[in-house]
Amino acid sequence: MKIGVICGLVALVLSSCVSRQKLAYFQNMERIDGNTTPNYYTTVIENNDLLNITVSPSGATEMDLKLVQPFNLPVTPAPNVTGTITGQPRLQSYLVDNKGNIDFPVLGQLHVAGLTRQALIELLKTRISEYVNNPIINVRIDNFKVSVLGEVKMPGSYQIEDERITLPEALALAGDMTIYGRRDNVLVIRETEGIKKYAYLDLTKSDFIDSPYYYLQQNDVVYIEPNKAQMQASAYNRNIPIFISVASVLISIAILITK
C-alpha cells in the first residue's frame, strides 16, 4: 500500500501540469493539408546589406575571361607584421550605403535597395551586356542573419548561408524554446526600407505558416516572451519549483515510512 502511494506521489510530481494546447506546435494541421500556401519567400536588398557579386562569361576562351575581370575585383589579404601575405585573395564585397547605393566597377553607382536578388541580377546583366556577351551574374547577401532572443536555449544571432529560413528553422538553430516560452505569442520584428514592422504569431496554430512572417528576412529579430509563471518567478531561481516538488516527495515518503 505504501509503495503504491509513494509511486503515485512521484508520478504526480513528475507529470506536467501544462496542457498540450499550450506546448504543441502546428496543431490542427489537417486544416491546411493540401492547401496552397502563399510564397512570401523573396529576398529584398536593404541598406547595410553586404553583397557578393560575381560576373562570369558564358564562354571559356581567354578573351571571355579577360572581359569579365574588370567586374570581379580581387581583395588581397594585408601583410602581417613580418611583411608576409597569408590567406587567399577573395572577391570584393559591396556594402549598400544608407541611400541604398553601391559603387560597382565600370558601371559606377547603382541604386539597389528595394530590389529583389533576381531584379538586381537582371539589372546587372543588362548593363554588363554592353561589355560582355551574355554574362552570367550571381548575387549573394554575405551578412544575411537573424536574431533569436528570449526564452530559447541558445539566444543569439545566426548567419544564414542560403538566404532562406523559416521561423521554425530559426527556433531550431537557437535550440528551440524552453518550457517557459510562450508559443502563442511569438514576436517577429522586421525593418523594411527604414520602416519597422512587427507581428505576433501563434505557433500552436497551424495557420501561422500562411503569415508573411513565416519566412524570415535578413536582420529579422525573433523574441520569445516568458510565460506568466516564469515572469512571476523572475526574482527567484527558476529551479525552485523543482526543488519544492522534490522536497515535498521526500517529506511524504518520510512520513509514510515513519508511520
Automatic annotation (TrEMBL):
GO molecular function terms listed in the Swiss-Prot or TrEMBL record: polysaccharide transmembrane transporter activity; porin activity
Topology of the protein relative to the lipid bilayer: Multi-pass membrane protein
Protein localization: Cell outer membrane
InterPro entries, A to Z: Poly_export, Poly_export_N, SLBB_dom
Cited Pfam families: Poly_export, SLBB_2
Keywords: Cell outer membrane, Ion transport, Lipoprotein, Membrane, Palmitate, Polysaccharide transport, Porin, Signal, Sugar transport, Transmembrane, Transmembrane beta strand, Transmembrane helix, Transport
Entry keyword Ion transport: yes
Domain SLBB: 145-224
Protein name as annotated: Polysaccharide exporter
Species whose genome carries this gene: Zhouia amylolytica AD3
Biological classification of the source: Bacteria, Pseudomonadati, Bacteroidota, Flavobacteriia, Flavobacteriales
